[in-house]
Amino acid sequence: MPPGFVDLTLLGSSPQQNPRSEQLATLQIAIETAQPERLRQALSKICAESAVAAQLAQDILLVPITRSNSPAADEHNKNDDRGTDESGSESVSDSSSKQEALEAEAATNIALGLKRMRPRYAVCGNCVEEFDVTDNQSGDCIYHPEETEVDWDGGFWDDHDEDCHGKIDDEDSRITYPEGFKYTCCDGKGNSEGCETRRHIEKVPAKRMRCY
Description:
This protein is an alpha+beta fold. The chain has seven helices and eight strands. It has helices spanning 21-33, 36-49, 51-61, 71-82, 89-111, 162-165, 171-176, and strands at 62-64, 117-119, 121-123, 130-132, 141-143, 148-150, 181-183, 196-198.
């Protein structure tokens, strides 16, 4: 069972003692089979109408910003795991300045009895996997830093006729026939495990993450 997942059928007493058990079991099925967008809408409505539910959701989905899970930490992790970029030490300096500013603000908020919060779970911009920002270690992310290209020399496409079997160099073929492609970073097949490891780096959405 996934972390944080609550099996509603285990709540309360047995069916003989609690007539609501059957309804809870049915609700469990509805939760497991509902589309993600439907669940988001339902959770948002529940949180808007119940302070208790909103607090429970916050306890599960939000965490206080710390030095290790702050947005500035991502910049530090990029340099820490793979070295500096073309700008050299300047990027490290910028990252340090951001971190110092964040820590100063956090100290002020603590003194005022306030806490800045952030989402606990994020999607990695490299491996595109969800990760827990409170448990993000070096080596957790395994990925290819470059894209794939058609492996014309591997023999996979020798009998492939694009007029009969479809286009080779497109996204559908990459998904269906990954072994017919190779990564330009390491020459590994399209379905091979990543060739580099590091910490997860949070994917920045179109609307930048807001901290509460």
